[in-house]
Amino acid sequence: MNILIIGGGGVVGQKLGRLLATRGHLRGREITRLTLVDIVDPAPIPDAAVPVETATCNIADPASVAGCIGADVDVIYLLAAIVSAQAEEDFDQGYAINLMGTLNVLERARALKTSPVVVFTSSIAVYGGEVPDPILDHSFLNPQTSYGTQKAIGEMLLTDYSRKGYVDGRGFRLPTISVRPGKANRAASSFMSSILREPLNGQEAVCPVDEDFLHYYLSPRKCVENLVKGAELDAEALGQNRCMMMPGRIWSIRQLIDAMTAVAGPQPAGLIRWDSQPEIKRIVSGWRYDLRPEKSLKLGLSADDSFEDNVRYYLEDDRPAG
Amino acid sequence: MNILIIGGGGVVGQKLGRLLATRGHLRGREITRLTLVDIVDPAPIPDAAVPVETATCNIADPASVAGCIGADVDVIYLLAAIVSAQAEEDFDQGYAINLMGTLNVLERARALKTSPVVVFTSSIAVYGGEVPDPILDHSFLNPQTSYGTQKAIGEMLLTDYSRKGYVDGRGFRLPTISVRPGKANRAASSFMSSILREPLNGQEAVCPVDEDFLHYYLSPRKCVENLVKGAELDAEALGQNRCMMMPGRIWSIRQLIDAMTAVAGPQPAGLIRWDSQPEIKRIVSGWRYDLRPEKSLKLGLSADDSFEDNVRYYLEDDRPAG
Predict the structure, then answer these.
(1) Where is the NAD-dependent epimerase/dehydratase domain (chains A, B) (predicted)?
(2) Where are the alpha helices (DSSP H) in A117-271?
């Protein structure tokens, strides 16, 4: 079993690499090779039980893609993307990476004539616009960002290439990942992790929305577990649409904070400064959270049981030492 | 008002060109230039009341697209496509024309920085797969052909380029056009026109399905009237999704034939030979016909009043002399 993770340098790619390297098998076969590639060389996987390599790959460049997708690959995880805010600011770059990059990977996979499994991460950013709530398995995709558009197009391509037998694709629309490790960034959703992560690290954080703000969340640990399950699903079970929501759970900001307090005591919540920011509120109020992922739940994917779990996972997996 | 019809050599492009050339105005302004382009030089428009030109254009080639979309264009009709059966057989060509061609046109329009109106013809082939009937304005697009996939992607691109202000796009999913003039072709839907057209021309035709087969139809005359209305819609009225169904009507084969008999007498129906063809039946039984185009009806687009009208339009507009 030869696995390639494209986007292996990101939060999800690194955690997926670690899980696979510990697990040692996928789709009933021993992992004999695990390669992580990204636009910059990904960090190596510590204590790997399987052979792990890292390399650079620019998916916008077909030659680079051909160089990193070898003929003997069995499973390709395509996680690489220009994120939402960047794709909105740099229209050309967003289309080059998120649309043409996806097409380059699918074309290379098709050229191999081995129909490799391709696991593609889409996003709940494909939802929005005129579509009524709740979001069901057959709700229209009406993205209101270029990132969401590019992900929706990637889904369409994945299903068509699978229908033709060129790849065995499966795509999952990721909820907002929280608690996300690392640093705050300029994404409008950044606070959805930072109001927990920074206080748990003993630092102050700003919450720009009200405590009754609702959103749809999944822990990074559960996300990569679902990505492993996603690769292992029977193609026959996927039906005529290879893409689906990945399960998450709806929580309010108040519920997130109460969960943090339940796990880590009252001190962290005191480090949250409430500073209402109308522009952030305007953006995130257009995001959908009432999602009903019936198909993926039926196929065995799952959400977190409680946000307390999300907090515990952060403390166990990601909190910096000291 | 400078109008360009890309795909101006096809059945819809030619009829649209004639309607615009007779009408003489669009969006409240006099038509000062009307250009029809296609992969081969389109037929000229007879008795045009406005200046008409024709030229060749290969939309798969960005340089060709730049050559035919001048800086002073106001309205671009993008009708050109590799049709369903051909896109299914020639995967590369389908993507080159239907996906990259659409992208090339949108990119050229964006480069002009004038936000021209772009009217895009999609197809009810975007529907299928797992999506429950009836098809509503917010039904998921789950195409089961590469052609349908490419059209669905074109829709997504049109909405995103419009959201960014690069074009003022509007897309319409065309019903099956009948009675279509010209010759029978290898499309699985070919019989939906030929069982009427050939008998009306005094020739025999084969019907490969049962008389209770239901489908969703629109006359070519009504189609181009809707495409004119589509260009004239206020951008504000279109909302956050620039693409919608074009209205059609559901009829059985029996209703089509009865309408022909009502208009043209009993002789034509006698020229239909019933020859059940399992492969054609298999393909067309997967097509959706229970469509509810609420949005476009509300915006003033319309379907035919009766299939008798479709028959009359064919006799008035298209039946070869003699």
Answers:
(1) 3-203
(2) 146-163, 191-200, 220-232, 235-238, 253-264
HSE, side-chain direction, 13 A CA sphere, residue B142: 23
Region B2-177+217-245: CATH code: 3.40.50.720
- Determine contact: A149 vs chain B, CB below 8 A: yes
Selected residues 212-271 of chain A with any CB under 8 Å from a CB in chain B = 239-241
**B267 vs A307: CA distance, rounded Å:** 74
Taking the C-alpha atoms of residue B16 and residue B271, their distance in angstroms, rounded to an integer, is: 31
Candidate from B156, B163, B241 with C-beta closest to A153: B156
Identify whether A216 is a catalytic site residue: no
> Is the predicted pLDDT of residue B31 greater than 80, yes or no?
yes
Residue spans per domain, chain A? 2-175+218-245
* B160 lies within 8 A of chain A by CB: yes
* CB-count exposure of residue B310 (10 Å: 0-12, 13-18, 19+): buried
Question: In this predicted model, what pLDDT tens digit does every residue of A145-173 receive, in sequence order?
Answer: 999 999 999 999 999 999 999 999 999 99
Look at the domain A2-175+218-245 and name its fold.
Rossmann fold (3.40.50)
- Vertex B133: Cα angle to B129 and B139 (nearest 5): 70
- What's the pLDDT tens digit per position in B223-260? 999 999 999 999 999 999 999 999 999 999 999 999 99
Q: A138 touching B, CB under 8 A? A: yes
